[in-house]
Amino acid sequence: MIPFLDLGAVNSPHAERIAQAVQRVIQSGWYILGNEVTGFEAAFARYCGTRHCIGVANGLDALTLVLKAWDFPPASEVIVPANTYIASVLAVTHAGLSPVFVEPDPTTYVFDPKTIEAVLTARTRAILPVHLYGRCCDMEPITAMARRYGLKVLEDAAQAQGAVYRTQKAGNLGDAAGFSFYPSKNLGAMGDAGAITTNDDTLAERLRYLRNYGSGQKYRNAYVGFNSRLDEVQAAILSAKLPYLDAENARRRQLAGRYLAGITHPDVLLPPADGVIDDVWHLFVIRHPQRDAFRNYLHERSIGTDTHYPVAPYKQPAYAAYAHLSLPISDQLHREVVSLPLNTALTDTQVQYIIDTINGYAA
Ligand SMILES: *Cc1c(COP(=O)(O)O)cnc(C)c1O
Predict the structure, then answer these.
(1) How far apart are CA 7 and CA 19, in angstroms?
(2) What GO terms are given for molecular function (predicted)?
(3) Which residues line ligand 1 (CB under 6 A)?
(4) pLDDT given at position 277
């Protein structure tokens, strides 16, 4: 069986480094907001090219805290893609704001800058581009539009650690960015973890307070804050793995290149591959018009797959108030997408087997 993702196998090359990192934290006797968090924040800010990194508890909190920190008037609108993981939308809701769903570009699956402009209103305060599947949104027209209308740009970079747009890394393409280090992400912790990156000194300081009970000084609370801290153990593990992220992303690109060159089945739609945007292939997502039958075929031949995502956030019971919307591009994507195994534990032989099996599919 080729599993869709075996995190034990993905982490096994790092096993010794991780054990040492955890041991160091245990022996330090300091488990919350100490040298490990400070060290990882400095390393990840350097990696992204930003002035600041603020470690938080998870990716959802990273996005939510930034939106809270901006302190927009209640019911302000935030533009989100219709086809994203629900966390991007929940962050908007938890910050007391209203999500405005827009259709993706039908070929890249990320924001189409033209569709954003069409939904701007007097209440729009921010745009939330999601670098879905590891591919950066076309950020230049988005940030230009944001400047024109006085809007903030919050990147959801949860799936794009290390992705590059032109000369800048994901996390350094807007006013602030939220990262998740959920175990399956390109840079994954061994539990929940997240971070915010920004070049805005004032915002960074506010976020350091907000994640820690609104406090910068023990027992003095300047804001109504949260408890959303990255813990020392996760920070130490992330610091141990970060130096290998670029090499691991390079391996992902190599595997994606094999799929792109090898899969020739006429019914399978491959993801786009172009040179301008440096995709980190968090997921390798293909489309098939009879997705479920196609997935069954692969599973019967011992190939694990997943679906990112089977249902659009606006069609979830949690967002029943938006169920009346008509978003046909997004709906079609949710019907057709299949994610193939793509991770650093996958071998060339396995990839070739997957390619051959797909090309041999007779519906
Ligand atoms: C994983 C993910 C998140 C949320 O991260 P958590 O750490 O699970 O809270 C947000 N947005 C996207 C696009 C994600 O893939």
Answers:
(1) 16
(2) transaminase activity
(3) 58-60, 84-85, 87-88, 130, 156, 158-159, 180, 182, 192, 194
(4) 60
